């Protein structure tokens, strides 16, 4: 297991360096998984990362630690987070930003 983590960490660092970044980002880890032939793990790893971000944001909002001081409801924060995730996915998939259609509200349907 430690060997696997070392391999992913090393490749993530290489991806990060090629992009001339100083900090390894989640996108670098996902790209490393792809490059090393572990593409079947990408969806599950990304889902775990999204869940972590949601839990972290929820905890921050709950504790009143919103960094820019803006007042935002949990629903607005979750929507903004999903927008940011969609942009990150688009960047990972070649740069095309595809706007996510808002989910329909079943109570409004006839």
Automatic annotation (TrEMBL):
Pfam families: CBFD_NFYB_HMF. Residues 91-110 are annotated as: Disordered. Residues 2-33 form the Transcription factor CBF/NF-Y/archaeal histone domain. It comes from the Eukaryota. GO terms for molecular function: protein heterodimerization activity. PANTHER family: PROTEIN DR1 HOMOLOG, PROTEIN DR1 HOMOLOG ISOFORM X1. This is Transcription factor CBF/NF-Y/archaeal histone domain-containing protein.
